Protein 1
Amino acid sequence: MRSFLKNIFSNRKKGAMILMYHRIATARIDPWDLCVSPEYFEEQVRYICDNFQPVTMRDLIARAKAKQSLQNYIAITFDDGYRDNFTAAKPVLQKYTVPATFYLTTRFTAEKKSFWWDELEQLILATPVLPERINLRIGQDTFAADLGAAYILSTTAEKEISEWHYGHPLCNARLKLFYDLWAAIRPVSIAEQQRVMQELQAWVNKTISLPALMDEAQVKELSHISLFEIGAHTVNHPALGHLPPEEQRYEIEASRSVLESIINKRINGFAYPYGNINEHTPGITQELGFDYAASTREGNVTHRDNLYDLPRYQVKNIHGKEFSTTLHTWQQNHL
C-alpha cells in the first residue's frame, strides 16, 4: 500500500502546468486580475524560459495522449483576444522563443468589438457621478439599488476600487453595485446582456474608452508564426453552463468555423469562457472533434485528466521572484 501511494503522488508531481493570461497591460482598475504589466510579463517569461520546458497546447496534448513525461512542461495560454496580446505579449514571447496558444472569441468580427464586463467596469467603477437610483429588468428579475452618497465617486472610494480584486470584501457601495450587476448579467442570454448594457449606458450617459481586441489581420499574423497557435473561445463569450446544449454547440462550433476561415488552418483546441460548463459541455467539444478543452479550475495536468476539462492556473500581476515562488507552490500544493 505504501508503495502504491508513493507511486500515485510521484506521478502527480510529474504533471505539467497550463498558465492562463488575459491582458498584458497596466490598468488603473482591474477587479478580475486580468492584467499583467509588460514589465512583469517579461520577468515571468524569462523565468519560464530558464526553468521549464514551454510548449504549445498542441504539443502538450500530444505528450499526454502518448503517456510521455509531463514533468517540467508548461503551456502559456491567453483568453479572449485582447489587442495587447499582439502588441505587448507577442514581442516578448518571440524574444525568448517561448510558444503560446491564444483562445479567441470572434467578437473582433462583430460591429461592436468589446466585452460587456469591460463596459460595466468603466460605467460603474470609473464614472465620477452616477444617478442616485437604478431600476431595470435583468432576465426575469428586477434589479434595483439606491447608491446614497456613493453616487458621487469619492477619493476614498476611488482608491478602494483601484485596490479591489475578486474574492476580497466589497468595501463600498460602488463595488457592491458593480459586483451585483456582474453576477446578474453573466448568466443571461447574449441578447439580454446586450439589452441590459444598452440600458446601463443610457442610465449613465457617458462616453467610455474600452480595451481593443485583435483584428483579423493581427489574428492572421499570429497564426503564421510557428511559435503560436490559435484556439476557439466561443462567439460571444457566454457562460456555457447556463445555455441549453444546442446553444452551446452553436457558440463552440461557430467560433471555430469563423477562425478557420480567417487563418486557413484547423482549430483543434478550445477554452471554456469563465471555465463555466455543465454536464453536456465537455461531451459537445469532444463530439465536435476538438482534441481538448481547457477550463479555469486550478491543478496540474496529469495522464489521468479528462482532456475536455483541463485545469489551468491564472497568472496575476506579480514580479519574477514572486512568480517563481508561486509556480513552486502550484507544483507542490495542487497535486
Note: Residues 14 and 133 are 54 Å apart (CA to CA).
Protein 2
Amino acid sequence: MVTPGAARETGLAPGTPVIMGGGDGVVANIGAGSVSPGKTYCCLGTSAWITTTSEKPVFDEKMRTVTWAHAVPGLYAPNGTMQYAAGSYNWIKNTICTMESFAAAQTGLSPYDLMNQEIEKSPPGSNGILFLP
C-alpha cells in the first residue's frame, strides 16, 4: 500500500495497492523454482539462457553476462543468454544441413540427431568458426 510519505512525494492516494511485477526472464526464475541461492535453471527455446539465484550481483567486466534484481527481494539473478539459440539451430537445419534433413526423412530419424552426430566430430572451437546469431 502507498504509505502517507510516499503519497506526499508521488501524488498517489494513501492506501493505493502496490503490486510488484517483473520481466519475463526475471519471473521465469520463480516458475523454474530458482528462488534461493544456488538454484539454477536453463531455458532453451527460440532464445536461451542460464540463470542462477545469488545473494550478490555478479559483474562480468567483458559484459558477457548480466545480473538482474531477482523478483525475491534481496536476491539477484545472474544470467548468461544467447538470443535466437534454438531459432539459429533451426535456421542451420533448414539452410546448411539439407543433406541431414533429407537423410532424416528417409530413415525416420531426427535431423537434429544427425546434425549432432556431425557436430560431435568437430574439435572444440569448431576449427575457428564463430557464429553469432
Note: The chain has a mean pLDDT of 91.
Protein 3
Amino acid sequence: MTGKAGVQIESAMVMAAGLGKRMRPLTATRPKPLVRVAGKPLIDHSLDRIEAAGIAHVVVNVHYLADALEAHLAAQKRRFSIAISDERDLLLETGGGMVKALPQLRGDPMLIVNSDNIWTDGPEDSIRHLARHWDGDRMDALLLLIRQASATGHGGRGDFHMDPAGRLSRRKPGRIAPFVYTGVQLISPRLLDDAPAGAFSTNILWDRAIAAGRLYGLSHMGQWFDVGTPASIAPTEAALTDG
C-alpha cells in the first residue's frame, strides 16, 4: 500500500507467539490469537485491517501451540502472502521476534501489529493514516497511540507523553501519561540495527529511539480494545455490536 505522501508499506508482521497467560483458561487448548471475539479469532481482526490497507506480504511469528496457528493461517484466503517466523525452540519476546523475522520482511517502513488488540478506523483507514505521517528522515518508529480515557479494557497508567511535533517520551514513575500504545506501529529496519541477541523487549529499541529523538506517535481517531483477558471479551463484543 502507498500513503498519500507516497510512503509504501510492502510488508507487515503480526506478533502472535506469546503464551497468552492472562487469557487462561481459554488458552489451555488454543493459542491466544485463535481465541474468538465477535465471531472470529483475534488474529483475523488484525489480518482484516492489514488486508484492507492493501499490504501484500505478512509474516506471523509462532511459538505456543504453533501447529494450530499455522493450520489456521494455511487455510486463509487472503490478498496477501503469509510467511511463518518459527519460534518453537525459543520464545524471543517482541524485540527478538522482530529481529528473527527481519529477513522475511520487505520494505521501509514495515508495519508491526500485536494480535491481541482490536481497533476500528476513524475517518481514515488507521494504517494508511500512519503511512501518510511517516517521515523516514526523522523517524525510526511511528506508534499508533490512543488517549488513555478512550483505551477500552486497558487498566494501566498510560505509556507515553507526546510533544506538539509528535516526539514521544516515557511516563514518569508514579505519574499518569495521556497516551497508550495500541500495538500498531511502523518501523524502519534502522530500529533493529545493533539489536541485542536472543530474547528481548521492543522497549529497549524504543528507549534508544527516544534518546535519539526518533520515536514518534500518532493519535488514533477510532476505537481501540485491549482484549487481554477472558473478562474483556464480552464488553468488547458489546461495543463492537453497538458500533
Note: The two ends are 27 Å apart (CA to CA).
Protein 4
Amino acid sequence: MPLINRRDFIGAAVTGASALGLAGASLTPTRAATTAAAASSTSAWPPVRMKAGHQHDHTPATLRALAAFGVKHICSGKVGRGLDDGWSVEDLKRLRQHVESFGLALDYVPLPLSAAYITEGEHPEVLLDKNPERDRTLELLGQMIRNCGAAGIPMVKYNLTFIGVVRTGTKVGRGGATLKSFDYSQLKPSAEMTPAGRITEEIYWDRIHTFLKKIVPSAEEAKVKIACHPQDPGMPPETGWRGVNTVLGTPAGLVKFVEMQASAYHGLNFCQGTVAEMLPKPNEQIYDVIRDFGRRGKIFNVHFRNIRGGYLNFDETMPDDGDVDMPKALRVYREFGYDGMVMPDHVPHIEGDVGGHKAFAFCHGYIQALLQQLRAEGPTAI
C-alpha cells in the first residue's frame, strides 16, 4: 500500500467520516427497516475475540485482583536489563508459571527499551548510534526475544523514543481527579537537546531501520511478535522538540514504520490515546486510523484510553469522559477480527488512590462491560 502524508491521511479520514453521515432528516427510516438493517449488519460481524488485559505489574495482590475482575491476560511489569537479570529461558518460564498459577496468561513482556530509556540508562546506545555498543545490545535484545519464544511468551513491547512521554501540566477533572495535560504552546522552543543531539528525520529513520533489520529476524525465528509504542504525544513534524523530529508521532509516520520491514511479527503496541493525540479531530478521525492499521494486521495490542482535545492540546481522561466514542472504537476493532488485549493506560489520579489501583479497577470494569455488550450484539466469542 502506498505511503500517505499526514495532510492527505487526515483529509481522507474527514472525507470518509462525512460520507458515512446521513444526508438529511427527511430520510427517517421506519422501525422495521432499522431493525432489519441492524440484524443484517450484526449477522455479518465476526466473533468477539478481544480480551481485557492489564500491564504494569505482576505482584500476587494484583494478579488476585485481576482474576477476580475476570481479566485473564496480562503484560508483565519490568523483567530486567540483561540475560542474567530475568531474561534467561528458565527465569522467563518461572515468570510465566507464576502468572499462570493465578489462572492468568502472560501474553507479553516489556523489553528494556522504555519510554524514557535515553535518560534512564536503559540501553540508550540503540538510538545513540554507538558502535560497537549498539551491535552488542541489538544482539542482546535479539537473544531476549528468542528466549521469550523458548519460554512460551508470544510477544514483547518496546519504545523507540528520544524524548519520552511529554506533558506540560495538570487540570482538574471529574470529581476533582487530576488529569495530565499537554499544550505544545507551553513548551520552550529552545529546550536543551537530548544526549543524542540533533536528530533529523533522516537520522531517526536510519536508526530505526538499523534496529528493525537486526531485531525482526530474531522475532521471526522465535515466532514472537514485537510491538512498538508510538511517540507520545505527536509533535509538529517540521520542528519536533529538543532537537528531535519525532517521526513516530504521526499516522503517516507509523504507516512508514510498519511497512519498513515486511513481517507478520513486526507491528504496534497501538495506544489509542496516543494516536488520538495526533489528530485534530479524534472523534471523527480515530476510527479510520484504527481500521487502516487493523486491516494491515499491525495492531498487536491496544491501550484503550481516551482524551479530551486533540493535536498539540489535550487532557487525559477516564475512558468514558473524553471525546472519543469508546464503544464505537471497540466495534471497529471487532470489524477486522482483532484478537489481542484491550487494556487501560494513563489513568487520572484520584485523591488517596496510591498507585492508581482504584482508577485502573474502574477502567477494567468499563472494558469488561463493553466487551460483554459487544458479545451480546453478535456471535459469541470463540
Note: The two ends are 31 Å apart (CA to CA).
